[in-house]
Design goal:
The protein has 354 residues and is an alpha/beta fold. It is globular.
Length: 354
């Protein structure tokens, strides 16, 4: 194959991958005007995917590397955040560097050192140590003092001068309790993670307030209805078993995975979800519409939060100084098949048979 034929084949491959014309690919590769930024980025991404080296004139367009530190990928909500953040960074000309923590693996601080060695332009932290009230937050103040722009998602430290982006966890708990109360439930349990985490503290506060205001439960009676446990399916299953022993008919869970664990605990006892027990998750992570039963959950506005976080970081990098405060995003109740009207004996405890 001659040079021109090989070039045409390459243009064809790139055009097909980017879903544009070969003429558009040629304009991008030759750095000519008249191509929309998103189309140009699609072509450059296609080059990377297909393993072609970017022309030198285009490589210099990269605005730099940006670190993205997430706690894990087992919980599908974190890949969802990562996907939107990476895509939004790429549209702004930045190259994302994903750092995923695993139990016993590389720590957040070790990832930060690696990112600093690579001279990143900034870092986005998702549910990191900034969310842990027991952690030393001097690590973030040290980064800001370098100076290095940082943005935190889901977790707030008032003493750290950076933009924070969070889902309103108090509101999330209120939405879940209100939904179950409307269905006739009054004995509504809470399952969530360790209370040293800011989102957990807010969720517990929201649940307690909603239970006293909407369900009429005395503050002193709420203690036995809350179980703080490990995040994940296993934690949710164990906590649900304990709360079922205490007679709950509805459960508000701190994550979708916890909610799936609660469903499993109910079924192991021969109980029906939602006939005997209603379960509400949190996150609306991918595939929750396809579980059995489809999970009622409170949706985190992942796309809006991720885009806001990237915009704040890019403003910081460009010297525009995004406000150093917390941006709260309103969650949304998504009603599916895991919640139903409370059992008749609960709704009408004094009813007598004829």
């Amino acid at each position: 194959m001659g040079y021109s034929a090989a070039m045409r084949a390459r243009l064809s491959d790139i055009a097909q991958q980017a879903e544009v014309s070969e003429a558009t690919v040629s304009r991008v590769l030759n750095d000519r005007p008249g191509v929309a930024p998103e189309t140009r980025q699609a072509v450059l991404t296609a080059l990377d995917v297909l393993g072609y080296e970017r022309p030198a004139r285009l490589r210099k367009r990269s605005a730099g590397l940006v670190g993205l530190v997430v706690p894990e990928l087992d919980n599908p909500i974190f890949p969802a955040f990562a996907q939107v953040i990476e895509s939004t960074l790429a549209q702004s000309g930045f190259t994302p560097v994903l750092c995923t923590q695993t139990a016993g693996g590389v720590t957040e601080d070790e990832y930060v050192e690696m990112l600093l060695d690579r001279q990143v332009s900034g870092i986005v932290f998702v549910s990191g140590l900034h969310a842990d009230t027991a952690a030393n937050h001097d690590r973030y103040r040290a980064l800001i003092a370098r100076p290095l722009p940082v943005v935190m998602i889901n977790g707030y430290v008032p003493e750290v001068a950076a933009p924070f982006v969070s889902s309103d966890d108090r509101e999330a708990a209120d939405l879940a309790v209100a939904h179950l109360v409307a269905l006739g439930h009054r004995r509504i349990g809470l399952i969530t993670g360790p209370d040293r985490f800011v989102p957990v503290q807010r969720r517990v506060a929201g649940w307690r307030a909603a239970m006293t205001r909407l369900a009429g439960v005395a503050e002193a009676d709420l203690g036995p209805l809350a179980e703080l446990t490990l995040f994940g399916v296993e934690g949710g299953e164990a906590a649900a078993g304990r709360l079922l022993d205490r007679g709950v008919t509805g459960l508000v869970c701190g994550s979708d995975l916890m909610a799936l664990g609660a469903v499993r605990a109910a079924r192991q006892r021969g109980l029906s979800v939602p006939g005997d027990l209603s379960v509400v998750g949190y996150d609306d992570s991918p595939l929750m519409a396809f579980t059995d039963p489809p999970l009622t959950t409170v949706r985190q506005p992942v796309t809006a939060m991720a885009v806001a976080a990237v915009r704040a970081l890019v403003d910081e990098i460009n010297g525009h100084g995004a406000p150093h405060s917390e941006y709260l995003f309103r969650p949304e109740l998504v009603v599916r098949g895991s919640t139903a009207v409370a059992p008749a004996a609960v709704r009408f405890p004094y009813a007598r048979s004829a």
